[in-house]
Prior knowledge:
8 helices; about 170 residues; alpha/beta; five-stranded parallel sheet
Amino acid sequence: MRSGERPMSRAVLIGPPGSGKSxxxxxxxxxxxxxxxxxxxxxxxxxxxxxxxxxxxxxxxRFRELEFAAVRAALAExxxxxSLGGGAILREDAQELLAxxxxxxxxxxxxxxxxxxxxxxxxxxxxxxPRSQLKKxxxxxxxxxxxxxxxxxxxxxxxxxxxxxxxxxGLGA
Length: 173
């Protein structure tokens, strides 16, 4: 890499809660022999508390500010596999930062997402009626996920190892 160039992530995983971003991100990083980074973990490290506490104590707007800073930093610094929080793609400036990166949309159906996330989840946006909230969230974000992705992988009913192989092959790794 030449001086002044930013590193390029090997894969940036996006998708709704329960799509498998964290699980598949770690496995894909292992397969590719690169580092793994999760922007939700970065946000928690900066804030010194879990994402759910940030939402409750500081509000969604503050969380989204921290999240965008984490996405910007990770895209500028990390050349491995990166998992973004489900809503990290909501800001237009975050969408612009993702341009040119190998973005992989992990598509999941409502039934699988609910099973993976659980209805008693500590996810702040799913507090009142988790199934209904998750459905709305998935429908609202789907067009953004689809537009940003260079590769879309359906995760329903599939084993992580199979998905990692599909992602690696789809990205030419």
